[in-house]
Specification:
The chain is mainly beta. The protein contains ten helices and 64 strands. Among the domains are: 113 residues, Immunoglobulin-like (Sandwich), CATH 2.60.40; 208 residues, no CATH class. Strand 7 and strand 8 form a beta hairpin.
């Protein structure tokens, strides 16, 4: 059943198309498995808490008819401001507007919160942007720039609240603006979209803008709320949403309420926080925390920004989940919150969780994996600028920040094919890790440190659990020995060290190789044993068992494994690393450039990167993490073989180190796929039959439809009709891995082998294109670079993303170019092939210039941009509109 909601109606109806509900909650009260709640554009000032869940086969879907057209906000607009003094205005808000939760009397508090009992969960928003809470009215009247803020110029926009009778009184300094003429809002609701009870499973939330929630601090030992989240459930999908201005956390995949152990540490101070954390984990296991009931969520293609604590948070509830293709930025930039639970993503117990293809930048640390990062894979992510900007006051070691922090986990934790470009790339107070094929521009800190509770008189080691592989069942507890680390086929490039970072490390007394250092490379692992040396020390010696210190060997550092790494600009390998490539004759530059929301990576690195110095890395090479005795493998137990690069391109048998496999070319351009894509909404005229397994039931002609799954495997059936089948059940199927699907090609046709080939879709990978015929479902493969073509009778295709050629003349020109080449190759054109290529090349070039120039001959297709050769796939990435477009290329005179 379809349930309709529209804020524009005067009176709420019965949820039908002609008489929609006025509030989303009305639909959420009645929606049952298989129902779709369709929400029209508008601002919905409500807290949506679904009463029912769906099933795996029939989820309940909540979707906005336009991308981010429907806004769910936790704030209310205030227009009754009165002048108070100077730039300060005052408003009295009746407390009954808040119900049983007043954000302006609720302090931010909880375990591992270090901000003091001064800040409230409420906020004041000026034109959608949260202002800064002051500690007194005097601070509002005379605001001072906060040097710890990443945006100090805005920190003088301040507010203060007090209670008078039954009112909340808010004083705010708008710096000369009239709040009654601006859009000024205040926090009212704690959450925007979140069930009130556990076990509301299989909900999909798609295409909303969600903002301005008065969330509470979310440590792992408390009930973790967020602006949106499943509470404690299974199988949620949150996709294509924009999420911002949560006081603490944006998306919560976190822990349920354990009344007897909710912030128990800071409420009672009877047990240490890490002990209450262990208690919470064991209690959860006893109360049903397992794969059958919890986790397996998908967070994809969301834009998450300007939250105070985390973009995504979770303890226990994020197990077996996938977090992919999200853009996360400006998290904790105000620095009004402080504590040990801050990051773009902060997850405890990310068991078998995959974090891939995300763009995370300008956060107080990008990703923090705390405890039990077992079976976790972090791959193909773009991290940069996750340390405070120059000139920002660093007030604690936890506010220094880094791209990735892995803490007190036994692994296996696989970090591969990432760009780690901040001043500190990784904080590694952990073991059981593997870093493979990364580009690393910053340092490793806290290697061998940070795994106890700071006891001075007695040992205070943090014993953390490890699990039965691919399960939540606890296999044991152990302290962290450090090491058990693998570094293969990475690129390390030392960057210029900022003086202010040096000064902070020195002034804090943490200026040491094992604490805060700024040396790029594996150097902090000096002194760690090799595999051979370590395991030789464990040989049994029955005669020495009773000797003092015999058991010390079981508490020594674990071995470090290395191979195939390349070091530039003075980056340094550890003393046990043999065979590393160390470039001493050239200076390498890595520059991240932003222009109008587009990010590009410029480097001359690939002029000097050696070839054929590495081997293919796989689960066999990586072996087992020491403590859990679990392989570095996929979450289904299958082997990982790193035969594809950052963009999914095939690697050679001796792959290039670092994330990109670019062969021997010195000059090239590559663009990031999938990032920030909003191409999931199509009108019926662009519908691709057979493409999706599940649809929003029967649609009327002008309805917006939404793909509920990515491409998966589309198999051309024996009758020529498209059908969904499991590809492994079909014999002799050509399996095609495409990176881009060009849709909207239906109006383009070409003569081909005596018939008319009407193009439906084109799948692209590199310089290879596969054309699908609309009538016969025939698939033709065209190698656009070398002039070879062939037909596929049975086929399946996977694709990372789609672009609509029907909406872009430049894209349409590219489709015509590929089709013309197919005509030339098949000798189906009546006139001279060279003239045909010249004509189409000139026609397309006219549309594409000055950005891209195309050279086309009957046997050779190349694209030229600023004298750099790039592939057909790369041209598509450059031509299409995308909010993020990182580019790697040779830059002269850097």
């Amino acid at each position: 059943m379809q349930i309709y909601v529209s804020q524009s109606v005067v009176r709420s109806g019965d949820g039908t198309r002609n008489h929609p509900f006025r509030f989303i909650q009305e639909a959420a009260d009645i929606a049952q498995p298989g129902d779709v709640v369709i929400v029209a554009p508008g601002i919905y000032r409500e807290f949506v808490h679904p009463a029912h869940g769906g099933t795996k086969e029939q989820p309940i879907i909540y979707c906005s008819t336009e991308p981010q057209g429907a806004t769910i906000t936790g704030a209310e607009q205030i227009k009754e401001w009165e002048p108070f003094k100077g730039d300060v205005w005052k408003v009295n808000v009746p407390n009954n507007i808040f119900g049983d939760y007043n954000p302006f009397t609720t302090y931010i508090e909880g375990d591992w919160y270090f901000g003091g009992k001064t800040g409230h969960t409420g906020d004041v928003y000026l034109n959608g942007k949260s202002m800064y809470e002051a500690g007194s009215l005097e601070e509002v009247e005379n605001p001072q720039i906060r040097r710890s803020s990443w945006e100090p110029e805005f920190s003088v926009y301040t507010w203060f609240s007090a209670q008078e009778m039954n009112d909340t009184v808010i004083f705010a300094n708008f710096q000369g603006k009239n709040p009654n003429e601006e859009n000024v809002e205040i926090s009212v609701r704690r959450n925007c979209f979140m069930p009130l009870v556990n076990g509301i499973n299989y909900i999909t939330v798609s295409g909303f803008l969600l903002c301005q929630a008065a969330t509470q601090w979310a440590p792992p030992t408390a009930y973790q709320d967020g602006l949106i989240g499943p509470h404690w459930a299974k199988g949620w999908i949150i996709e294509d949403c924009e999420i911002s201005e949560s006081k603490c956390s944006g998306i919560s995949l976190g822990k349920y309420l354990q009344p007897a152990n909710n912030n128990k540490w800071t409420k009672t101070f009877i047990k240490d926080g890490t002990q209450t954390e262990r208690d919470a984990i064991c209690q959860a296991v006893n109360e049903g925390w397992d794969k059958e009931n919890i986790g397996s969520h998908i967070i994809r293609r969301c834009e998450i920004h300007d939250c105070g604590q985390t973009g995504i948070v979770g303890h226990l509830g994020a197990v077996f989940s996938t977090i992919e293709d999200n853009h996360i930025y400006r998290i904790n930039n105000k620095h009004n919150l402080a504590g040990a639970e801050i990051g773009g993503i902060k997850i405890h117990a990310a068991i078998d969780t995959v974090i891939r293809r995300n763009h995370i930048h300008h956060c107080t640390r990008g990703l923090w994996l705390d405890w039990q990062a077992q079976g976790t894979r972090v791959t193909q992510n773009f991290f940069h600028d996750n340390t405070p900007p120059e000139g920002c006051e660093i007030d604690s070691g936890l506010s220094l920040g880094e791209d990735i922090f892995v803490e007190v986990s036994h692994g296996p934790t696989l970090i591969d094919h990432n760009l780690l470009l901040s001043d500190i790339s990784c904080r590694l107070s952990t073991q059981g890790i593997a870093l493979v094929h990364n580009m690393i521009h910053g340092s490793f800190t806290f290697v061998g440190e940070g795994t106890d509770n700071g006891g001075k008189k007695f040992q205070s080691c943090r014993y953390t659990p490890y699990h039965v592989p691919h399960s939540t069942k606890i296999a044991g507890f152990m302290t962290i020995l450090h090491g058990d680390a693998r570094f293969y086929n990475n690129i390390f490039v030392q960057k210029e060290i900022r003086q202010d970072l040096r000064d902070y490390a020195h002034s804090s007394g943490m200026e040491a190789l094992s604490l805060i250092n700024f040396i790029c490379g594996t150097k902090p692992y000096d002194g760690y044993p090799t595999k051979e040396k370590y395991f030789a020390s464990l040989q049994p010696d029955p005669s020495a068992i009773r000797e003092e210190g015999y058991n010390d060997k079981y508490y020594d550092h674990l071995p470090v494994y290395t191979g195939g790494n390349a070091y530039f600009n003075g980056a340094q390998p550890c003393d046990s690393e043999m065979g590393a490539y160390i470039e001493k004759n050239h200076i390498v530059k890595i520059i991240v450039e932003e222009e109008d929301g587009h990010f590009r990576l410029h480097t001359n690195l690939y002029e000097y990167l050696p070839r054929s110095m590495t081997r293919m890395i796989s689960s066999v090479v990586l072996g087992e993490a020491f403590e859990p005795e679990q392989r570095f493998e996929n979450r289904d137990g299958s082997e990982i073989i790193m035969d594809s690069d950052y963009f999914g391109r095939k690697r050679s048998i001796h792959p290039l180190c670092g994330p990109f496999e670019e062969g021997a070319a010195d000059r090239f351009t590559v663009a990031m796929p999938s990032m920030g894509s909003r191409a999931i909404y199509h009108h019926r005229k662009h519908r691709l039959e057979g493409r999706t397994r599940k649809r929003i039931s029967q649609r009327e002609p002008d309805e917006v439809i939404r793909e509920t799954e990515e491409w998966g495997d589309f198999v051309n059936g024996p009758e020529g009709e498209g059908s969904w089948e499991a590809s492994e059940k079909v014999d002799e199927v050509a399996r095609i891995q495409a990176n881009i699907t060009m849709t909207g090609c239906e109006n383009i046709s070409f003569p081909y082998n005596g018939t008319l080939f009407q193009v439906q879709d084109i799948f692209v990978n590199g310089n290879t294109a596969w054309l699908r015929d609309l009538k016969t479902q025939k698939l033709v493969e065209v190698d656009c670079e070398y002039g070879i073509y062939s037909e596929k009778k049975k086929w399946s295709v996977n694709s990372l993303q789609t672009v609509d050629a029907g909406k872009d003349m430049n894209m349409s020109g590219l489709v015509q170019t590929v089709g013309t080449l197919l005509c030339v190759l098949s000798k189906s054109m009546s006139h001279d092939p060279t003239d045909a290529c010249k004509t189409i090349s000139e026609r397309v070039n006219k549309a594409l210039e000055p950005r891209i120039t195309m050279r086309l001959t009957p046997k050779y297709l190349k694209f030229i941009q600023e004298k750099k050769f790039i592939s057909l796939e790369d041209v598509i990435y450059r031509v299409k509109t995308s909010p993020i477009e990182p580019v790697t290329e040779t830059v002269e005179n850097l």
